[in-house]
Amino acid sequence: MMQWIVKFGLAVFCLLAALVPPAVAGPSVEEMAAQMLMVGFRGMEAGPEAPIVRHIKAGCVGNVILFGRDLTKGAGPGRNIRSPEQLKALSAGLKAAVPADMPLWVALDQEGGRVQRLRPSQGFDEDYPSAGTLGASDDVALTRAVGERMGRELAELGIDVDFAPVADVNVNPESPAIGALGRSFGADPEAVARHAAAFSEGLRAAGIIPCLKHFPGHGSAAADTHIGAADVTHTWREEELIPYRRAVASGWRGMIMTSHIFNAALDPALPASLSERIVTGLLRESLGWNGIVVTDDLDMGALTRSYSLEERILLAVSAGSDLLIFAQNRKDMDFDPDLPRRAHETLVRLVKEGRIPEGRLRESWGRIAKMKRGAGRAPK
Description:
By secondary structure, this protein is of the alpha/beta class. The protein has helices at residues 2-19, 29-35, 51-57, 84-96, 131-137, 140-156, 189-205, 242-249, 276-286, 301-304, 309-319, 339-352, 358-372; strands spanning 37-39, 63-65, 105-108, 110-112, 115-116, 161-162, 211-215, 255-258, 292-295, 324-326.
């Protein structure tokens, strides 16, 4: 009898085991690290010998950012964009190089006004109004319509992410990176929140992922973080958080970009993009944001003058950021075509050395994969 029971039990066990699907191995550290990197590159074609294509095929890069001009030393007149036909082919070629099933995001900054990577002089659709112009008209329906027109053009060109709209409050109209360029919707944080939401709705209606920037607020800065440090300790106002509070509370479906501003009242040691107090403590815990956090360009002078590549990666990921941008597009820097590989190897090594918990990468992977697997772009 006992022998029969044992045989019956084994048969049942084998039957149940056959019905249970085998466990699917999770992504490797290398795969997760690649998805967390968004890099800039030189070139207008995606041929097999292009360095960026080799990096994508090698599994070092999961995302790219495009620019119209190349500002680095020894650069030619253009960078990645010449015409609609060329850009569409470039986007398609980059995406075709991906070795895995995770889509590659192609991103750029198309805000309107002074910050437009796509210009009518190159054959693109229109010269879009600036946030300052739209805010002054205070016509939310118009702002949404502009966002949707822009989004439809981007989608046709194979763009997935637009690093817009700017959610900075125009505290200092002379701020060299924001107010002086007309990049803010205005000085009223509630109006900024309304217009940022409307612009984002327009982009999303066209299938483009929007991104609010630059958390926790760059509008009072008297310096430009592209060039060096910007200390807003005595000028920043808590009302600059209102656009983000409203967005998160309303179920924001996009990304949020952190800035490199320094605010000793929020963190006495680190700039916002590298600060766990600001990214995790303020944005995630206090405001309740659980979506993708993307850094502003980690190659900006505000960081490179004080932090090595390893320190920037270690601090940004430890702070709670999911997507790290390395644009390599600054006037006083040399372009390094091998930076994507070096950044990837550095992030992987930091995890394997135990300086960044693997679980920290899995959190970011989960957020990125969730959005990418929704067809790779914002659901319409």
